[in-house]
Design brief:
It is a single chain. This protein has 234 residues and is mainly α. It has one domain (64-233). Helices cover 76% and strands 0% of the residues. Helix 5 packs antiparallel against helix 10. The longest helix has 27 residues, at 203-229. It is globular.
Length: 234
Amino acid sequence: MAKSQRTDLGRRADALLDAAAGLLLADGSRRIRIEEVAARAGVGKGTVYLHWPSRDHLLLAVGAREAAAMLDLVAAAVEADPVEAAPHRYLRRHFLEAVRRPVLRLIFGAEAGELDALARHPARERVAEAKLVAGREYLSALDRHRLLRPGQDLADVEYGMEAVAYGFFAAEPFRPGADPDYRADRLAEVVRRAFEPSRAPSPDRYREAAPQVVAAFTRLAVQFRHTAYGTAAD
């Protein structure tokens, strides 16, 4: 595909994703319709289907674009300060980025049936596999440089970190109005105590691990971006 054509497709996809995001914020995911997205973006309904074959795929694309932007910020933070690769600092940043993005909060707050449909979507399965690979690459890099508490099985660390992070996200309805920074700090402290060495590792060890960590997050961002833009990302 020619560069100019790819650029045009990317701009059109962004306009449609912006329109969908605006409708999500106004009406919620249950009410969003393809024809309304098209009208808001000033194009025909068929144009939306040139990018995403279904409403569910479009919803995934909206969330995937946000996720790619989050991962870009995480990778940039690790490049600027390699200690940001520490699990407690990475998950703190990830948590704050997620809860401060209203579109993601709406998608994850959808009703169970709708979430089930999104989870079963083929495009979601590809992202889930990419997330699994990236998570294992991230933990393997930390383990090689002795940045995790010794004596742990990486599969146990992977499961434990995922469960703890999910618990903090899921707890929001039970703690309405809780300050996001407070919640992020509590998440960071639990992760630090459970999975990291009791004595803070040397910054040099994080510096050595940083290139592999950045590469893992960058590859995952590419996969999310491909889910968001489809042919416009090629």
